[in-house]
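Tip: read the tokens left to right.
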């Protein structure tokens, strides 16, 4: 943890740069940031203004510098956003004597770090975001992924076995290891715990790997509307559309969604982190993701821990029976080790 140390050398703490570009990345990287600081590292955090990223950083009281914003779903806008934010990160990081750069799927960080010749490590758990991985895997020194993903699926991106740093289980089992649900979130939203609760996450309509309509998701929303349904939109446009439709609970600010998921009787999401959080917390969960399934979801579906929704009529909002499944809690320190190990 102490670069530049030698005989008679003045030792300084390792300086680590973490870049966060989307809401789930705050959750994943928070234990890593805290672990590194406990180990004596100086951790600098930059963040993109997108979804609830900045709100979550404020809720967790993680000091950060906001740089750039999401430019929208169009390919040209994404390209311009990548170039402009990467350049802004270069300007911010130059001269800060950074030893290591870490991100969870941040193309901006990988490019900026490469231009500044800072070693970088990237992480992800969905292998079919090709454009993203083609950049990150080639530029990064290390690639942190679940061991469920076959290595041959990653080699095409330039992530050979020498770069791979693989972990067991779900990333959510690491960052939720110390988590205990807080019922205050129910009171904040006016939710009655005596009645069934559904938590719904909208599709990532601005993501490159999800460029299509989601008819099943739309039908499910109509089926659930009027019940006790909390919907977590990803964008302001989605929020406006849902508000006009009415019949849903729309949180006004970033909240502790993990507690909400833990208390829910049903979770529906179009893929990604919230589905796996529900699995990790023992809540029944359906995925409406219409893209190519990744290895993690393939395994969860095969094991019966995640269900794929193809018909809206299969969903019934009712109080779940029995106690939640026993949680598997994994060591966040072991997860952190994958980001900072040498080689």
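Filled-in amino acids:
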């Amino acid at each position: 943890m102490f670069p530049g140390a030698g005989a008679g050398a003045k030792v300084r703490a390792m300086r680590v740069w973490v870049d966060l570009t989307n809401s789930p990345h705050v959750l994943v990287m928070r234990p890593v940031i805290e672990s590194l600081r406990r180990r004596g590292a100086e951790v600098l955090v930059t963040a993109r203004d997108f979804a609830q990223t900045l709100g979550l950083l404020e809720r967790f009281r993680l000091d950060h510098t906001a740089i750039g914003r999401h430019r929208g779903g169009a390919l040209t806008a994404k390209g311009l956003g990548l170039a402009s934010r990467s350049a802004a990160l270069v300007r911010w990081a130059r001269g800060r004597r950074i030893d290591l750069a870490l991100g969870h799927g941040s193309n901006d960080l990988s490019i900026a770090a490469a231009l500044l010749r800072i070693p970088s490590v990237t992480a992800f758990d969905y292998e079919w975001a090709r454009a993203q991985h083609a950049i990150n895997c080639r530029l990064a020194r290390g690639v942190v992924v679940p061991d469920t993903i076959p290595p041959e699926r990653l080699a095409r991106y330039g992530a050979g076995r020498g770069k791979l740093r693989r972990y067991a289980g779900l990333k959510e089992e690491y960052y939720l290891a110390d988590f205990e649900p807080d019922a205050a979130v129910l009171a904040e939203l006016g939710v009655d715990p005596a009645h069934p609760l559904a938590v719904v996450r909208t599709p990532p309509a601005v993501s490159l790997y999800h460029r299509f309509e989601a008819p099943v998701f739309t039908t499910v929303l109509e089926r659930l509307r009027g019940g006790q349904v909390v919907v977590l939109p990803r964008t302001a446009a989605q929020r406006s559309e849902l508000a006009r439709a009415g019949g849903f609970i729309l949180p006004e600010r970033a909240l502790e969604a993990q507690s909400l998921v833990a208390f829910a009787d049903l979770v529906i999401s179009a893929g990604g982190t919230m589905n796996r959080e529900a699995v990790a917390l023992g809540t029944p969960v359906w995925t409406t993701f219409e893209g190519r399934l990744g290895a993690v979801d393939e395994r969860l579906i095969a094991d019966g821990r995640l269900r794929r929704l193809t018909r809206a009529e299969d969903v019934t909002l009712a109080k779940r029976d029995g106690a939640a499944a026993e949680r598997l809690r994994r060591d966040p320190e072991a997860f952190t080790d994958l980001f900072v190990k040498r080689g």
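The first helix runs from residue 23 to 38. Confidence is low (pLDDT under 50) at residues 1-11, 208-212.
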